[in-house]
Each structure stands twice: as structure tokens, then as C-alpha cells.
Amino acid sequence: MEKKTYKTIDLDVYEETLDCGLKVFVCPMDRHDALAKITTHYGSGIISFKPHLKDEFTEIPLGTAHFLEHKMFAKEDGSDIMSIFQLNGANSNAYTSNHVTSYYFESPSKFFDNLKVLLDLVTKPYYTDENVEKEMGIIDQEIKAGFDDPYEAAYHSTMFNTFKNLPYRYPVAGYTDSIKDITPNVLYDCYNTFYHPSNISLTITGNVKPDETIKFIKEYYDKLDYSNRPNIQIREYDEPLEVFKEEEVIYKDVTNNIIENAYKVSFKNSDMDLAKALAYVSIYLNIKFGGISKFNKEIYEDKNILRPVGFWKDLYDDYLLIDFSTEVIETRDIFERIYNNLNDKEFSKEDFDLFYKNALKEIITMADSVGAVNNVIDYQVRMYGKVLYDYYNIYKNLNYEECVKFIDSLDFSNNTRIIVTKKKD
């Protein structure tokens, strides 16, 4: 067990990599609750790989990672995992993203009881023809509901039209036709390859004692045989910079127009440290589109635009995706306004300093929340392969001149536009 410290914000994190390969991060905090999250670095973006102990690449049905997340709650003894968590006073859930699958609980008491339930959840798979068939009906309805929802439909089309070859273009849950090809054997191939502890991280924050916690986890895994570690090989894809499709109109039962506008930005040739590069992009987006930006003030005063233009960003292999969304009465010039504002690239040192200082403040504030600290550690391990203990100093050492130069080097021209509009009569 190695003790490390988030510099400046004075949070200690105890790291341990078990013999089975599981990476454990324990951050004790003087709080009432404790939160444990276990994350396998396997999400919907992996659809072609070499299964453990097999020689050839296989392509699995779209939606398999999400389906597997659901079926991890099926146990041979028929126990109801969610009910057990509830009886232990814990809030629990799970989710699958493009990049990972995570399972977690948060509770004020019975921490070790709940931790054992969480570990049992991910170490004891049970897939049968019967329980797979039963789950298909449930997920089929979930998929249909998603495509019926105009906001989800806009998001699905955004991802599909942004990427040409990367599997991130497909919905996390897959399609109603694709999940029909999921079998217990497919699920076991995925589980045996990606749910090995060497591909998993466990992050615990809150009211816990590191030595007792890590001892408990070690003793749990020492009883299991994980000696045959998989050599994970995932198919790589050649993805062009250009978006797959520049514009699409979707007809739904809506009153106003829902729009999404996604920009695909190459990070392939950037020499800048990734954490610093993403920090500069975050500051720039907040300067241009944040709550106190000039653009947001203009949007607020425009009666045609019914809600603020929201945005998010994420990295997909070599590409940064920046997605904007809003709701309008008439689409007219909204896409042009977003494009022009993003590509203006003019901002003052005063603007930079304001949002730079706010980012530093948010890092300090984050340290007060059990959930926020857990999310940051989990995210950094996924994104950078390690915890960035100098995260505060990375931000503190940012400067205006370097930000201007970096933002100026980015190409904000490749984008896809989605309009969800009222069905034609």
C-alpha cells in the first residue's frame, strides 16, 4: 500500500495493485458516507477483439457491454443484488458508457457488507439461455423508448454522423435487431476477457480506514484464482477527420426544434500534455459558451432560443468531440452562430484569468464531496492510466499565451448538425 497525496487540496489516496492485477484506490475523507465504485475498462466502444484463450478476432453484437452489465445482476442462487444493497441502507446502481462499465454503492453504514456484495456482483457471472432471453425483452423496450425520445434520438444521430468507422457511433444499448444475437457464450467471452481484475479499478472514497479496507479486498481476491491473465487485444480502426454526415433532419412529435451540433477535433498531432490540453479547451469553451459569456447573454435575450446552449466534450481515441445542444422555435442561424463563436478564437487575458481562477476554485470545492472525488479518481485512471496527484498544479501552471497558441492550432471546422423537428402532416 502506497500513500500519495493530491497536492494543495490535501487529500490522501492509498494505492495498491493486487497480485491479480486489480488496482485499488482508497481516499479516506471525514464524511458520513462511503462510496465504492468498481470499473472495468470495457464499454460499448469495443465490438471486435480476441476473446481470452482464443486465437481469432471476433465481432460481437452491438449493445453487448450494456447487456452484460444488466446480466451481472443475475446470480445462480437467485439473490436480488439491488434488494440486498437496499436492506443494507445503500444506494446502488450501474452504468455502461462508450468507454467503461461501472458498478457502485454509497452508504452511511455496513460498508464491508456492501463492499462484499459489490465484489460478488462482478466476480460471479451467471448467464443462461433462459435469463438472457428474459433480459432481451427488457432491453428491447429500453432501446425502443430511447429512440422514441427526441433528445436521445438527436444524441444517437449525432454520434452516428460524427464517426465513420469508430464503434462509438453506435448506441450504447445497441439496436433491437443486434441484441437478438447475444448469447451466454458471447457474454462469457466478454466477461472472461474484460472482467479480469487486471482490467479493473476499484475506487473508494469517504468514511473508511485504508488499511482495513485494502486488507478486506486482498483477502477477498486471494480466495479466487486469477492466475490466467488475458492478453487483451482490441481491433483498431482508421478514423478520418471528416464527419460521416454533415446534416440530418429527424421528424418526431415535438412542438419546437431540438438541435445538436457536434464538432470533431483532431488531437492526433498534439505535442501538449493531454491533461493540460483538455484544461485549455475547457477554459476556452467556458469563455465562449459558459453561463456568464457574451454569447450566453445574447442567447438569453433571443426569444427564438428557448433554452441556453449547453455543451459537453469527451475524447474518443484521437478525436475530441465537442457537442452543443439547444431548443429553438426556428432553426435559422443558430448553427452559424455556434460556428462563428467557436471559431472566433479571440479572448482577452481578463477572460482567461476569470475562468482559470474559477477552475482552480472548482478543484478545491471538489475535494469536499465524496462523490466528486470518487468520480475524479475514476475518470483520471480511465483517461490517463493513473491518478494525477498534481492535478491542481497542472491548472495552476496554465497561462494565457499558451492557451491562445493552443486553441489557435485547433481546427473547429468539421461538424455535424442534427435537427429534430415536428412531423410533417
Tell me the span between the first and last alpha carbons.
66 Å
Strand order of the largest sheet: 1-2-3-9-4-8-7
CATH class of the largest domain: Alpha Beta
* SSE pattern: EEEEEEHHEEHHHHEHEEHHEEHHHHHE
Question: In angstroms, what is the radius of gyration?
Answer: 23 Å
Biggest sheet: strands, sense, closure?
7 strands, mixed
Choose one word for the global shape: globular
Based on the structure given, which CATH architecture of the largest domain is correct? Answer: 2-Layer Sandwich
Helicity, as a percent range? 25-40%
What count of helical segments does DSSP give? Answer: 14
Beta-strand residue fraction: 15-25%
Number of domains: 2
Low-pLDDT segments: none
CATH H level of the largest domain: which superfamily? Metalloenzyme, LuxS/M16 peptidase-like
Q: What is the CATH topology classification name of the largest domain?
A: Cytochrome Bc1 Complex, Chain A, domain 1
SS content category: alpha+beta
Mean pLDDT: 95
Task: Tell how many strands the DSSP assignment holds.
Answer: 14
SSE map:
Layout: E1 2-6, E2 11-17, E3 23-28, E4 34-40, E5 48-49, E6 58-59, H1 64-71, H2 81-87, E7 91-96, E8 101-107, H3 111-123, H4 129-148, H5 150-162, H6 184-194, E9 200-206, H7 210-222, E10 247-252, E11 257-266, H8 274-289, H9 294-301, E12 310-316, E13 319-328, H10 334-344, H11 349-366, H12 370-384, H13 391-396, H14 400-409, E14 415-422
Parallel strand pairs: 3-9, 10-14
Antiparallel strand pairs: 1-2, 2-3, 4-8, 4-9, 5-6, 7-8, 11-13, 11-14, 12-13
Helix pairs in contact: 1-6, 8-11
